[in-house]
Amino acid sequence: MQNPIEFTIDGTIDGGAAHLSERTLTIAALFGLPIERGARRVLFEPLTVRVEVGGVVLITGPSGAGKSTLVNRIGAALAVRGDVRVVRLEEIALAADRSVIDCFSGSVDQAAACLGRAGLAEAHIFLRAPSELSEGQRFRYRLAQFFASEDDVLIADEFAATLDRVTARAVAHQLGRFVRGSVRSDRGRAVVVATTHEDLAEDLRPAVHVWKGLGMRVEVRSTTLNTKDTESTKDHEDGLNHREHRGHRERRRRGGKGGGGGGSRR
Q1: What is d(CA 11, CA 43) in angstroms, rounded to the nearest whole number?
Q2: Going along the chain, which residue ranges are E strands?
Q3: What is the three-class DSSP state of 54?
Q4: Are 127 and 115 in contact (CB under 8 A)?
Q5: Which CATH number does 5-10+46-265 carry?
Q6: Among 1, 33, 198, 211, which one is most buried in terms of CB atoms within 10 A?
Q7: Angle at 263 between CA 108 and CA 172, to 5 degrees
Q8: Could you report the per-residue pLDDT of 188-224, keeping only the tens digit for each?
Q9: Can you tell me the distance from the alpha carbon of 263 to that of 109, in angstroms, rounded to the nearest whole number?
Q10: What residues have CB less than 8 Å from 31, skipping those under 6 apart?
């Protein structure tokens, strides 16, 4: 992926043809709702999206607004080009017959660096199979696989939904820095992510931020891409570990003797 890609996304979906049962008709009558069979529904007007090397496209908004439809259509539009390698985060395989560290090519140091950037720096996790990891750990393992891959664009719906807020922001910060820094490498990267959490915008620093509201409401904000990130990989990992450590202390204070409930999401 060498050049910015710009395309228009269609915002209509098929309304379907649900069976008009007695219950369906009762609810429609009670609330004065029209019955539309087979109608096409418009989630948003045709939307022009620009994906560029070193850039993050962030899609936010409330649940049920159509974020998943939008992110999936952007991914499909990129995939059909043929000159862009697209990977969907949830489709990255979780091996059951190999340890985490053995699922990466290259040296042990290179694999550990990718895992550390994704927030999986604990050595004991390296020895477990990816299929044995918790949901939050699986998310970060898959992110580490993207770091280590030769894929051009990462598509991630429900980004960081399985992580607590402190870890989610730390990982988002890492991803944003990695993508922006890729403009100085042999392989430029880009990511398209969707989330309900507006706070991740501060850490991802998107080049394009699409807010999808309920109904047809859409707002698009674009910023000038700034790739002047000078911290080293070790600085990234130290920053992530510091933020996670601070988050652990905060959860312990809130949780009292029980230590809080955030650990199961990690």
Answers
A1: 5
A2: 5-9, 12-14, 40-42, 47-51, 56-60, 86-88, 153-156, 190-195, 208-212, 218-222
A3: coil
A4: no
A5: 3.40.50.300
A6: 1
A7: 60
A8: 999 999 999 999 999 999 999 999 998 889 999 988 7
A9: 27
A10: none
Identity of the amino acid at 19:
H
For residue 80, CA distances in Å to 73, 83, 111, 116 come to 11, 9, 30, 33
pLDDT of residue 265: 47
Residue 245: partners with Cβ closer than 8 Å, 6 or more residues away:
none
Locate 264 and state its tokens: 């199961």
Query: Both tokens of residue 162?
Result: 């399985």
pLDDT tens figures, 34-93 = 666 666 778 889 999 999 999 999 999 999 899 999 999 999 999 998 899 999 999 999
The whole-model pTM stands at: 0.79
Q: Residue 17 is encoded by which pair of tokens?
A: 């043809």
Structure tokens belonging to residue 251: 């959860």
Contact 54, 190 (CB under 8 A): yes
Shortest CA distance to 194 belongs to which of 182, 180, 211? Answer: 211
Hey, where are the domains in the chain?
5-10+46-265
